[in-house]
């Protein structure tokens, strides 16, 4: 199955943002002309939604973007499958110090509104990042994160009822 179909399964009523459709179609085809067309359309619709994201960003299948506005994702960030990203999220790069680099985000991660994840940090699987959280440290699997500085609480099935219609 192609990436676009995995992502569509996460949305009700096929209401996936157009820039995401173009992003996935770009990766689902090997035709150079179609890739160019999808890249141009991706840029247009990405800018229309105030999304700062590269066509080259590595994102696993089953991406869900709730309220797709004002999101920043560094091109070098890696995002796993079945992840939810909401309005105002920043996934950014640290340019100096011990955390120099970009985040690697695991599978089944829910990132709440206006959350920020920066630096060379690893976010485990089954992690819920509460709205308005600032994350600049590694987060283990099965955790809930909140606040600034981030507070980490272990919780089995942390994203239960937050991440729906998961792809296998």
How would you characterize the overall build of this protein?
There is one protein chain. This protein has 168 residues and is an alpha/beta fold. It has three helices and 14 strands. The chain has a six-stranded mixed sheet, with no helix packed on it. A hairpin with a 4-residue loop joins strand 13 (143-146) and strand 14. The chain starts with a helix and ends in a 14-residue tail after the last strand. The model has no long low-confidence stretch (mean pLDDT 95).
Question: Summed up, what is this model?
Answer:
The chain has 168 residues and is α/β, with parallel strands linked by helices.
Walk across the major sheet and give the strand order.
2-5-8-11-13-14
Work out the strand percent. 15-25%
SSE class: alpha/beta
Low-confidence stretches: none
Secondary structure: helix percent: 10-25%
Q: Total strand count, please?
A: 14
Shape: globular
Total helix count? 3
Q: Major beta sheet, specifics? A: 6 strands, mixed
């Amino acid at each position: 199955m192609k990436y676009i179909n995995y992502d569509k399964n996460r949305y009700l009523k096929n209401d996936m943002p157009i820039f995401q459709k173009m992003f996935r179609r770009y990766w689902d085809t090997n035709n150079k002309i179609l890739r160019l067309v999808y890249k141009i359309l991706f840029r247009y619709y990405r800018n229309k939604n105030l999304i700062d994201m590269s066509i080259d960003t590595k994102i696993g299948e089953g991406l869900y973007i709730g309220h797709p506005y004002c999101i920043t994702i560094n091109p070098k960030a890696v995002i796993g499958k079945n992840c939810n990203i909401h309005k105002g999220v920043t996934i950014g790069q640290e340019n100096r110090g011990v955390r120099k680099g970009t985040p690697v985000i695991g599978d089944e991660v829910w990132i709440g509104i206006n959350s920020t994840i920066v630096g060379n940090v690893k976010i485990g699987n089954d992690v819920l990042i509460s709205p308005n959280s600032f994350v600049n440290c590694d987060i283990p699997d099965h955790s809930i994160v909140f606040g600034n500085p981030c507070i980490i609480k272990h919780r089995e099935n942390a994203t239960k009822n937050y991440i729906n219609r998961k792809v296998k």
